[in-house]
């Protein structure tokens, strides 16, 4: 009878737990964001053409529409011309290509090594930075133009590759270029390492070989230290012999007494 009563009590206890936990016989766990009491806000999507993603913080380059074109800047005929003629040769009435060329040359002048430099890493990065600036403006005007979008992405990737190589080759110059061009270097994230048997065995084998090499080097280093005592004793004797022979022949000795004393001191150190 008591066994039946205990069974009914246990069944009643399980029924109450099921009612409290919504049909879950175990402890109640958080199953939705509301259970965690956390306010989640979806992060803002950053477009690929934005300066925030490419790392361009902007360069203060003054290119006025009242400036002459690059090919007309030094013409002597324009000095005596009237204002109307001069205005026709300004950037305001010339193709956009002229403005782009002038902006590119001014940006490249910030990092060029010399006047004719256009092949160094710094000059290439500056040229691509100018192109990226213009392409970003074009994408904002024509967001559906696939040719401009692809060209922009390719230019950003090429500049990132050159920046990576410059960082590995000359880090101080890399930092200097970033400061001059007001850039933020954002490297491409590395792919996660795939764990497999072959790669793991290669790494373990390489580690074991390195340990063997280090053990042999340590043993050889100890052996050389033991031989240094005999070496300095023999060196001291030969230096003394050379000095005595040179003095006996009436020659200027090439071995000084300081050299002999130094060899003797080293021999005494290794004896102890």
TrEMBL record:
PANTHER family: 28S RIBOSOMAL PROTEIN S15, MITOCHONDRIAL, SMALL RIBOSOMAL SUBUNIT PROTEIN US15M. It comes from the Eukaryota. This is Small ribosomal subunit protein uS15m. It comes from Cardiocondyla obscurior. GO terms for molecular function: RNA binding; structural constituent of ribosome. It is found in: Mitochondrion. Keywords: Mitochondrion, Ribonucleoprotein, Ribosomal protein, Transit peptide. GO terms for biological process: mitochondrial translation. Coiled coil: none annotated. SUPFAM superfamilies: S15/NS1 RNA-binding domain.
């Amino acid at each position: 009878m008591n066994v039946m009563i205990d069974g009914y009590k246990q069944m009643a206890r399980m029924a109450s737990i099921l009612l409290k936990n919504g049909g879950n016989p175990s402890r109640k766990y958080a199953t939705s964001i509301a259970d965690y009491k956390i306010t989640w806000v979806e992060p803002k999507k950053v477009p690929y053409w934005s300066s925030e993603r490419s790392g361009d913080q902007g360069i203060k380059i003054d290119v006025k529409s009242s400036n002459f074109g690059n090919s007309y800047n030094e013409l002597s005929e324009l000095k005596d011309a009237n204002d109307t003629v001069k205005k026709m040769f300004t950037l305001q009435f010339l193709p956009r290509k002229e403005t782009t060329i002038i902006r590119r040359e001014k940006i490249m002048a910030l990092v060029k090594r010399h006047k004719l430099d256009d092949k160094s890493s710094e000059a290439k990065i500056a040229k691509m930075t100018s192109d990226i600036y213009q392409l970003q403006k074009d994408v904002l005007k024509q967001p559906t133009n696939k040719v401009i979008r692809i060209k922009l992405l390719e230019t950003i990737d090429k500049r990132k590759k050159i920046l990576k190589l410059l960082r590995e080759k000359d880090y101080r110059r890399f930092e200097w270029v970033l400061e001059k061009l007001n850039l933020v270097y954002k490297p491409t994230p590395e792919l996660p390492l795939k764990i497999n048997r072959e790669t793991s065995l290669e790494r373990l084998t390489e580690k074991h070989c390195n340990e063997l090499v280090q053990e042999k080097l340590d043993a050889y280093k100890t052996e050389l230290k033991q031989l240094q005592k005999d070496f300095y004793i023999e060196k001291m004797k030969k230096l003394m012999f050379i000095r005595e022979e040179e003095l006996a022949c009436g020659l200027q000795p090439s071995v000084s007494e300081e050299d002999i004393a130094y060899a003797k001191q080293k021999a005494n150190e290794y004896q102890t």
